[in-house]
Amino acid sequence: MNRAQTLIATLALLALALAAPAPSPRAADAPTLREGVHEGADFLIGVPAKWNGGLVMFAHGYEGESPGRGSVRTEPASGYLTTRGYAWAASGYRSMGYRPDWFMADMLALRERVITELGQPRWTIIHGQSMGGHVAIASMELRPDIYQGALIECGVIDGVGLVDWLQAYTAAADYLSGVPLVTTPRPDFDALVAGTWLGLMGAPGAYTERGRRFDSVVKHLMGGDLPLRLEGMKSRYTMNLNPRDPGAQRAREFSRHADTRHIHYAIDAGLGIDEATLNREIPRATPAPGARSRETNPVFAELTGTIRAPVLAIHETADFRVPFRLQQDYRRRTLAAGTGHLLVQRAVRWAGHCAFEGSIRERALEDLVAWMERGTTPAGDDVLGDVTKLGLRWTPALHLDDPARRP
What we know:
By secondary structure, the chain is an alpha/beta fold. The protein is built from 12 helices and 10 strands.
């Protein structure tokens, strides 16, 4: 082949190469998903193509009381994490129900599985949603040697304080209506709520006189006149009512820990009843013997606020399943423990539970990692300050009924 022919052949090959579609990424460059069962719990492990040593452990929320082990859920920020070189792992838990004590152990066991497969992480974040927030905050207090940070999303950040709140809510509904809710067992309880209690009280936006008193008490139980509070109440107004013994299908194990002896009830003036009467007359719940023992079951004991690593929490202001009040209560615990500098809280002005846009979660993760790695404390909200100003910085779009939209 002469020089001219060689040149023509080379140009032809070059033209073919330019016209051909770009090769797809190699399989080795894509993240992989591993799944299986470990110590009685289903699991998922997401592994990036090039792991940088960061690990996020995802603890999901409550999914009911059915028999059998729980269902595993993908880490909500899985794509965000693996594209940045972080691995993640999620446990389905050994059972269903509300057992953060068991599930905390399941998360620890899964982390050991990750170490066996991938090696020792340079840091581990625990990411808890809803009940998983209880798992996460208990882990931060009780196992500071394991986790270097936590993201708690719409979470039960004050632990057993949630069941105290639910029983306080029901006791106030009982007293202010005159309907014996606390002592009525199921299934009579549900019929009593639908057939008698609702008629006496009305509903959010259409209260009777008794209902207006109840709403005022609930406002203070929730943590103040929070943005979109009434909107958030609507979906769980009656669902949050529970008798003292909720039965097998209503988290019996959780309810036996309820203690409302410390609850202070408040009410606005001019509603025909005063705080002293409320706090004297509303029935109180006491926990089963030993149920809140720090020695025998510290996960169900009252939390102390003693954290040793960064915790970033995001929470909807009008979450009526896990009320924003728990954020305020845990803030007070950290202030008393001298650890308030390790807790940053962000409110989102929405009426829902765990309904965050991905961008909110991803920004929180990015800020948490920067806090852990570079010591850059992220911005947050003062949850004990003016609640009407909460979340203005963190809410992507204000709800149509948000009072902040009004001139």
